[in-house]
Protein 1
Amino acid sequence: MPKVKVIQTRSGLVLVFAAAMGLAPLPVAAQTLAEALAAAYVGNPDLESERAKLRSIDEEVPQAVSNWRPQVTMSSSYGMRRIETFPDGGNNTDIYNLPRSWGLEVEQPLFRGFRTTAETQRAKNRIAAARARLVVKEQKVLLDTVEAYLDVLRTEQTLQLRRENEEGLRRQLEATGDRFRVGELTRTDVSQAESRYAQATAERQAAEGDVRIARANYAKFTGSPPGTLVQPSVPSLVPPDLPTALREARANNPNVVAIEYDERSARDNIELVFGELLPTLSATAGFDYDRDIIGADTGRRRRSLLAELTVPLYEAGEVYSRVRQAKQEASQALANLAEAKREVDRIATNAWESYATNRARIVSFEAQVQAQSVALEGVEQEQRVGSRSILDVLDAERELVNARIELVRAQRNSVVAGFTVIQSVGRLTARDLGLPVPLYDMTVYYERMKDKWIGTGVE
């Protein structure tokens, strides 16, 4: 169970799930990754669209089981009829008739060639597949939010490094100009400093654009612009090694689960279509009442109870063709399942290797930054005594900035890769992450509607 820290903000109480998301206690103004993921889970329209799609597919079960139930129809009519007679040699006669009638009929299916059972089972499998695909969508939205969150952090950190580099080169340019004016440096040294400063300005401007793009992308997933973000770490949900990740991915990846249920529903569809070749039996009960007004009232009542057996003898080959088609579709679904299992192995392996690689890269870049900082200090000292040129200093500064930017990028990629591993094993969900939100229950709508006999309301 994740530890919960409650903090007070201007907008009220905010729950920070520090242990679940690998975060230390944070300042009040900080916006955690858990909060960003919670906002995306609650308000992302793409995720809400997938939930509505699931609720739509939930209706296939009540539609299927309705074939067990009777159909009741009532009819009535009222009108006027005028009859004129013209006898030979006699007087014409007009008769006015006011017919009215009503009837009630109840038809109960008794046997439909096992189609109702097959259709119901197919609907249940389609619902299970849709639930798995909702998990797929949830994981995608949350991973996109993780990437958007970390992109904001990366671009802001990169912008800060670019600004510091630009400011340092500005001071370097001023110092170079001063030394040029007293004859210590040449015009070439000044031009080199000017060139690097102009390049740093362009890189800073590009970094500002990257920040604006990243913030807009963040708002797309969470519904609001980012505040002050903090660097997260990878949750403990990452499997300890690649074999464990592969084993969990094969068992729990929602893409595989969805396609497994697709294959089952394809087999159910064979039985559903084949049922059209079997006899059907139904019972019908009816009551009719007719009444005419011709001078005096006259009426007639009819009661009926019928059993109807229909045996298809030949359907022009159309049903046989659809049975064969359903069998081929089931074969296709089975092949899709085999491909999905291979694909999830590839995804889990790639994610794990990316995670391991970027963790190693972080160590390397940290060492590079430390070494390059020492190198820059040495080059600056050597330049002061004349054994190094201004260009050497500028090159050393650039290498240090690039190393710091690569470190920032590797930190971002490492966290994203860790969350991608979690996604591949099917655990990048609000429930597994312990997000501070009410969890969406996929079964509520289904349980409310599956046995509903009448009504059009969806709430």
Note: Confidence is low (pLDDT under 50) at residues 1-29.
Protein 2
Amino acid sequence: MAIFSWPEAKLLDTSLSSLDGYFSEPPVRAQTLTGGLTNRCWKLVSADGTEYVWRPITPITKAFFISRHEEYQVLSAIERLDIGPSPIVVNEQGLLVEWIAGETLY
């Protein structure tokens, strides 16, 4: 998992620029995440230390009919159950959710 500054990450994945209006200060770090089936997700760390996951919309997610808007709706519906990440924002480029620390089960 490579770690980048916010400007570097936005050069690698232009969908990240869609979050500029969300953050009052740019994230201090962006890290690529491994293990996804459909695309490269990013772990973002905000200036106040809050951690997020950016789940972009890509040609692959479109090919598999994966809808980040529907994912946002489902996560919103189950949020009170505390069984998944809280959805933060969804836009035409992807979905931002809270980071949940843990280990990947294989």
Note: The CA atoms of residues 21 and 41 lie 19 Å apart.
Protein 3
Amino acid sequence: MKILIHLTVLIAVLLIPTGCAKRETWDYLVMGVMSRASMSFIPQQFAAHIQDELGVDVVIHEQERWEPKEILENLRSNDDLRELVKNAEVVTFDFHLEFLNAPEAKYSSKLYGGDDNQDCLREALAVEKENVAAILDLLAELRAGSPVLLRVFIIDDHYYQFSLPNVPTPLVKPEVAEVLKIYYHDLQQFVEEEGQARGIIVVRALPDPYFQDSKPPAEWLDFIGHYTEAGSRVITDELVKLGLEMTVLK
């Protein structure tokens, strides 16, 4: 009888979860400008959500501040980055209005040609569209049919209405901002169309009604226009709504 009791206890002990089972680890690659951890809380918040939902550990691999042209350059020549792209379970990056910064200065100074002085803006937009398409092509090539949780952000245009603390005038003159937004909104639409054609989920950050032509709540941005924890949470909530389904890039 004692032997039977001892065996029963031993079996029960062996069946008790020890909590020591090793969890799967996911790699999360972060690139871009505004959606990085140094300018928002999005990567940390999204990684925490993935961990809670799927029971995996998430390791964030955040890259330097790269505009699309720099993302493209590194995808072509940075072996470490290429390896990360091939193997990461999660990839996020953003397209921002940085490509208009240099043309903006020339446009404002009336230094670029065309009857409307907008040749510089048209050229910058054309180059950026080429960069977008090339980045998405390279990502698909590097993944080689392997599914990935990819989310691409297009950043809202709050910068064109943004003022520094104690400075009453916006950083960009309103009449200039109205012209620049035409080109930026054109790029945003292009990214969404490319995403739809390729099966890539594109996320508006911030979501409507604050995506275009509408000033977001002050508590969503810090004093230099980066997303606060609250603003980041709004964007992360959009990610959560979209689920965690992986896709094969086209």
Note: The chain has one domain: 25-241.
